[in-house]
# Entry
Amino acid sequence: MVEAGTGHVSSRTDILERLRRGAATSDYVTLTEHSAEPAAQTVAGFARFAELAGATQMTTTRVAGQGAVPNAVRTYLAQQQLPPNVVTDPTLKLPIESWLAAGVGQVSGDVQADGDVYISAGLAAIAECGAVVIASGPGRALRNDFLARTHIVVVPEARLLPSFSGLWNLLRADGSAGRLAREYCLVTGPSRTADLGVPAKLGAHGPERVHIIFFGD
Amino acid sequence: MRAERDFPGLVEKEMADPVLRESLGAMEASRAHMYKLAFDELDDAGDLKARATAVRRRSIAGMAEYLQQFERNVLANGGRVHWAADGSEANEIIGRICRDAQARLVTKSKSMVTEEIELVPALELAGFEVVETDLGEYIIQLRGETPSHITAPSLHVSLQQVIDTFNEHHQVPRDRPLETADQLLAEARAVLREKFLHADVGITGANFLVAETGSVIVVTNEGNADLTTTLTRTHIVVTGIEKVVATLEDAEVLLRILPRAAVGQRLTNYTSFFHGPRGVADADGPNEFHVVLLDNGRSAMLGTEFEDMLRCIRCAACLNHCPVYTAIGGHAYGSVYPGPMGAVLTPQLAGLAASRHLPNASTFCGRCAEVCPVGIPLPKLMRHWREREFANHLRPAGERRGLRLWAWLNDGGVRYRLAQAVTRKFLRWYAGRALATGWLRHLPGPGRAWAQTRDFPVPPEQSFQQLWSKRERDT
Amino acid sequence: MSETRPQKPATAPAGRVGLLATCLIDTFRPAAGLASARLLEQAGYDVSVPEQGCCGQPNFNGGDKNGARKMALRTINVFAGYDYVVVPSASCAAMLRVHYPELFAADSDERAQAEALARRTWELTEFLHDVAGVNNLPAEFRANIAVHDSCSALRELGVREQPRALLAQVKGCKEQPLANPDVCCGFGGLFCIKYPDISNRMAQKKIADLLTTKEPVDALVSTDLGCLLHLAGKLHRDGTPMDVWHIAEVLDGQASLVKGESR
# Structure
């Protein structure tokens, strides 16, 4: 038997004993297989993602290849009337020249000021719920995703999963490979609060804007 | 757990608050509407609720097994698991972890379990500075209040009151006015960011625990749980043992239903899965990861008539749809958990003697059970508490005698007829000159409570059964 | 009015109905009991009113399970011989149909008897509409009415459409839909005297909805006398002119407008 936290062995034993003795009347219900949504056609998948993400105040664009990302970033920043300067996640591998060519000032590293624009590598996106998935990992400082005022997530098209099941498989694969990330986070919108009246306010602690860029290969 | 015995006194006080009345009115109008929209858009809302119920039943049936599986996985992921029989043990464990981490500043995301065990006062007493980072919680922390709602803790506070509170506590310089929601937001963002950046320990609750992966799932709209956990050296999760589910698919069903039932959202803006401390090559994240599993009366519910309550996912749909909650607000309940779910849970956690009013303060209108996404028969469970109250002589002797008398009088033809006749005659005599108006303005005895705000009909001379017998004789 | 109605069909009665009039109707509104009986007779049923008391709901909801059990057994016994038990009150009907079986241990004889009674128990409008198929009531009531759905009707019995389908047959009777039709009025049996302030606030909200319909409401109608006494008492205390009728009285053609005198 595993020994978990220090001390408190007796509480563990007692609680488990009470649970076993408790003679729960609830039963093990076998769920019918969830009628998983049919593997979304790529086009339909993007449309569904964009629709759901839009409903929760995220924006989405799709570009041909990774090389086109800096231009898409510049366009987005211009639309938002933001200066063309970004901080990028070191795990986002985009050649520095491509930023130069797009006229975007780029530094790799951590968000320094509240107003920074941060661009991070997304792990995946889920079409059926309009969520982008970010995860901690080697070289990846997840804090920046939650500190920047503007958060742009770049996701390879191939990582658009039709449904939650895709993400669960991914987690299980990471788990059995012994590299389950400290945190996986499904993001469906900016940092939002309803505690200061109606309408809800964006940018409560973190991003006020979340933009998703999908790129093809 | 905290529970206030003087429920009628609290009700009177809370109902006199015009600000509260306004916030409750606004909530009543919006939350029920959002709930309806969120479920109406689904083709299979009934199926989703049935699946969520089945998931929770399975969790309860296998809780011991799933908790151990969860524990093994957390250990494998580099975290530690602690078991706490009650609130004081949980607080002691958490205090020790904070001391070991040499913490000064502790940030916290919203968690009703931490309210249940009164963790913040315990940590403050031990010398730590604890800052609530959910904006609603932060507001009431400044005001020295407790949550009045389990998902909207500052529901009872008006925007003007938030403005006043911020001005009072933040000692804002004159050149930085704090008068609008946007200014408040900027202020809170700036103040709390400093706290996030300098905190040593981050404490969160958990919405669900997943046995198969050791995942701790936390949902927020503000993203404050992520900042709380990513920027501190130690992440402590404290949650009830009933939150465990078997698989990621089981968690998925609940993730689909919880935000819909709570606030009419498809998903919250941030749904986070935490698995342990930072990996060796990770650029950030805590060095330590602890999960404190709290029993505090939960295991004792297994196999009892209250077992169904363990299914609760704390969505607050029952509060949002409860006509009593929306009339009196959360503080009137005098307990950590208000509304119908609180009326069932509080007697279990704080003892029936201290909270016997709560399961009585319901018309059994059944709206709570109707909207509960995991099918908890809340009125039935409240009735079971009333049964225990009656059986254990906790109900006032007068009420007990009244009920006994009622059963005796109505258990036979002659007694019933006589009692009816006496009641009718008495009320007609008592009406005096008001007899002709058909209405009584005053009533004696237990009727006084009726007549405070309502007139009472003068009964006719003959009962239906008398008139019927007469009709039968005549034909 | 009853002499102007079509006579009972000459054929054999469609079945024997035991009418559980409820203690509230028995004491405070005999007219609703007589109206219920007439409606059932005109639908072709043989109606009896066996000597009866309270169904036990106050004891059941007050936690006195033993008291409730005794009253349930008496009621089960009294109504054993009827094809149908009809109740002009959704909350009492729900007591018989939904809760009596819960009072007794599974597999006990009492449980079987309670379940047998539950299967034969109907709320009045539910019976008239779903079982008797009443589709041509001769009643008339020229008024804008609001229908108050009792919580038991809506959520314990699933009765919502039946009262409306029957009221639609009443000439001149026009329903004004209420906002928040599924929200409790605050009666709640003993609740209304145990927690009078909360009950009052709930009544205030219901009355606010009654007073803000598209066209003004002349009369409030419901399947449940408890809700009606509570709301009528509040309307009368406030001096709000609105008539209050049990649905049986309206369907039986007994209702008239005496506006200003909440009845």
The radius of gyration of chain A is 21 Å.
